[in-house]
Amino acid sequence: MLITVSGPPGSGKSTNAAGLADRLGVEHVSGGDIFREMAAERDMTPVEFNEFAEEDPRFDRKLDRRLRETAETGDELVLESRLAGWLAAEHADFRFWFDAPLSVRAERIAEREEKPVDRARAETERREASERKRYRELYGIDVDDLSIYDAAYNTARWPPDRFLDVLVATVEAYDPAADEGKAPIEGVRYDF
């Protein structure tokens, strides 16, 4: 089963995707980890690299192509990235969207990256604006359109261990027969 996990920065994608993969006994691939590695290779922060990528779409395409290839060849896998649901739209058995209020996400990021909350919030807003622009220009994707997802959750509503119980229960209740004959997602240029 291929499961995708998407959402904005600080929504709990990485933590919950890793936990879900562990609980299901499958592999976890993180687009965020790959993106941060690409930024570090250029001695940039993720925000700086986002803005740099606005000027040169090769970096987005390289990352997105790698994630799409993973989706095409991955079987027992939780694929996690901002665009995972879109990149694996034709292959995913189940697509999750995670979100939380910006104030909660900024606090999570500030704690994780050991920086002031107001700085984390400002950087997150810049990063999201950059990504929203790039994804629309490159692929015609509106990241605010959640219609492609099978389930969307506000991760601030549950403690982390209880939220994993919710995710596992959701996956276990999934009926693959319900997907037979589903149409491809409209309006996306699949030229990753």
UniProtKB/TrEMBL annotation:
List where the protein spans the membrane: none
Top-level taxon in the UniProt lineage: Archaea
Q: What class of enzyme is it?
A: transferase
Classification via CDD domains: CMPK
Cellular location of this protein?
Cytoplasm
Which amino acid positions bind ATP, per UniProt? G7, P8, P9, G10, S11, G12, K13, S14, T15
| A GO molecular-function descriptor | kinase activity
Q: Which UniProt keywords apply?
A: ATP-binding, Cytoplasm, Kinase, Nucleotide-binding, Transferase
Q: Is the keyword Cytoplasm in the record?
A: yes
Name the catalysed reactions: dCMP + ATP = dCDP + ADP; CMP + ATP = CDP + ADP
As for family, the record states: Belongs to the cytidylate kinase family. Type 2 subfamily.
Task: Specify the protein name.
Answer: Cytidylate kinase
Species source reads Halorubrum rutilum
